[in-house]
Amino acid sequence: MKKILLIILGFLVFSCTTNPDYENNLALAKKWVEVFETSNIDLWKEIVSEDLVDVAPMYGMGQIDYNSSLQVAEFYVQNYTNVKFNNQVWLPGIDTLTMKPDGSVRAYGTWTGKSKSTGRDFTLNSYHNFDFEDGKIISTGEYFDATGMVNSVGPLQKSLVIVASHIKPGKIDEYQALIDSEGGVKTTRNYKGCISLETSYNEASNMYFIIENWESAELYQEYLNWRLTEDPSGLVSKIVPLLVGGQSGMTVYNPNTRYKFY
Fold first, then answer.
1. CB under 8 Å to 105, separation ≥6 — which residues?
2. pLDDT, tens digit, 9 for 90 and up, residues 156-190
3. Are the C-beta atoms of 115 and 154 separated by less than 8 Å?
4. I need a labelling partner for 221 at 20 to 30 A (CA). Which of 133, 210, 215, 261 fits?
């Protein structure tokens, strides 16, 4: 046992003497955490290199650059409060080829905080890695379920649009094909300002519902004007003959108010 302890101690001493930048880099990584605990986005800009490569925690984002990472940081700072990084474990990273300390930093911990808009609390475990160059963070990876966290505490706001269409008997498959076509809801979802989009069909009433979430009612109106006057697919004109009563068979509910998340 004594020999094992001496070996471990020797390894730690060796790691420190061959990893002279670790303490400075560790201080920078802890400042990165401080950004979110104190809502100090200027500190983020001070310690992060403009050549940053970041693996973002939001679903589907993947690897992003400085500007996109800044937007993600601003999102957290602006929308969450009482943020803390608890149960912190900080470790030196290693070069995966040489297996020697390379000045990088790793961190494990548990983020807690509160949504400013809904007052709901969140708790989630996370892992982070940091690499450094010229006294700044040059790359980082954030590994936690950010999308799940955002959903769990409730959306910041929703500008909901509900489109209800009364489908003629026997026409649902034809209608669905138009909705699923390249000019259908895929185009709607990718239009500027559309945050999310869901569809559902009630067979008993032949009613088809499209539930859309937009950044604002104004952006939805811009999209609607495009659909009615400029859309090269002519989607609306193709849909109308499939509706009970023609154009009157489609009702758009917008704007909607008093949205709440329970």
1. 22, 25, 26, 28, 29, 90, 91, 92, 93, 129, 130, 132
2. 667 899 999 999 999 999 999 999 999 999 999 99
3. yes
4. 261
Half-sphere exposure of 67 (CA within 13 A, CB side): 0
In sequence order, what are the beta bridge partners of 136? 133
Radius of gyration of the chain (CA): 26
According to DSSP, the β-strands at 48-55 and 136-143 are parallel
Report the 10 Å Cβ neighbour count for 199: 15
Domains of the chain (ranges plus CATH)? Answer: 2-153 (3.10.450.50), 159-253 (3.30.70.100)
The CA distance from 116 to 148, in Å, is: 17
DSSP state of 85: E
pLDDT in tens, 98-154: 888 899 999 999 999 999 878 899 999 999 999 999 999 999 999 999 988 888 887
Amino acid at 169: P
